[in-house]
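Appendix C: a fully annotated inverse folding record. The material below is reproduced so that readers can follow the format used throughout the book. The structure is listed first as tokens, followed by the designed sequence.
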């Protein structure tokens, strides 16, 4: 009896294994429905992620010091930098996308020690091109000394240099633009045609051709950053003004040997105290009407 039961059980197992009947298969319509549902869920997730990113960008506060970005994500830092450079673009006429990309590259999203300790986002040295320029926002004395890498004739070297230290990152952006617009090579502008240029490729080439960077790949690096983060979005919705309109109601204190000797000018400053700090022996500070208001003898 026991043998018969075992034989019957083995026969039943054999029939089940050989049976062509599928125990369960979702209907074709059901599978299509599930795939559609999953696709819709993925689309909703992407949309929610996009909305969340936009909300985050909008909620990112303005900053004064580079140290304030340390808690921000990469995308948030890019937005902070982009909006800051857009404000500068309205004043200087230098594309926000170009300034923002330079800031990102040269300060590591404002994370380098030079940015964190000195609010210097562009590697601006204490002495640049051996000349001064108008509208500088640097106080003329505050510096931060560090080692830096340079490329000369294809060779990479490390030097120790003094860099400008600023009260805020906005001052760093403003001084950088003032330099690009006012620095000279002899009697000619070092970066002619930069102001008002609307093609970022041409703008950064003007900057490179003027001797701004020693890196032979500088132009391609800046262009790649602009395209990666779509920084041209910060070039839109900006009303730029000409120099005459910008300076219409602005008065400068100029440091010269005499009011008539324009070639001796060391700089032009909005603040009298700052002008006095930069007034060397044998020079005087003159107001906008040519009157001597300070003399360093």
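Designed amino acids, in order:
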């Amino acid at each position: 009896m026991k043998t018969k039961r075992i034989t019957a059980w083995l026969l039943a197992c054999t029939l089940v294994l050989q049976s062509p009947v599928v125990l369960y298969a979702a209907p074709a319509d059901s599978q299509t429905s599930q795939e559609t549902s999953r696709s819709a869920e993925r689309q909703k997730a992407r949309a929610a992620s996009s909305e969340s990113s936009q909300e985050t960008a909008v909620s990112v506060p303005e900053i004064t010091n580079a140290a304030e970005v340390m808690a921000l994500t990469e995308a948030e830092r890019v937005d902070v930098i982009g909006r800051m450079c857009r404000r500068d673009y309205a004043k200087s006429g230098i594309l926000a996308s170009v300034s923002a990309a330079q800031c990102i590259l040269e300060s590591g999203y404002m994370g380098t020690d030079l940015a964190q300790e000195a609010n210097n986002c562009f590697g601006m040295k204490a002495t640049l091109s051996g000349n001064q320029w108008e509208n500088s926002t640097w106080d003329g004395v505050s510096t931060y000394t560090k080692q830096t890498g340079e490329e000369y004739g294809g060779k990479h070297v490390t030097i120790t240099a003094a860099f400008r230290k600023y009260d805020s990152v906005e001052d760093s952006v403003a001084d950088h633009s003032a330099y690009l617009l006012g620095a000279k090579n002899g009697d000619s502008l070092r970066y002619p045609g930069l102001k008002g240029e609307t093609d970022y490729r041409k703008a950064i080439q003007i900057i490179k051709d003027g001797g701004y960077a020693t890196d032979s790949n500088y132009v391609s690096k800046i262009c790649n950053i602009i395209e990666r983060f779509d920084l041209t979005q910060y070039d839109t919705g900006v009303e730029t003004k000409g120099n005459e309109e910008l300076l219409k109601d602005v008065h400068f204190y100029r440091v010269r040997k005499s009011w008539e000797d324009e070639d001796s000018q060391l700089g032009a400053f909005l603040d009298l105290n700052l002008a006095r700090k930069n007034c060397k022996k044998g020079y005087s500070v003159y107001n906008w009407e040519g009157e001597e208001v300070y003399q360093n003898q």
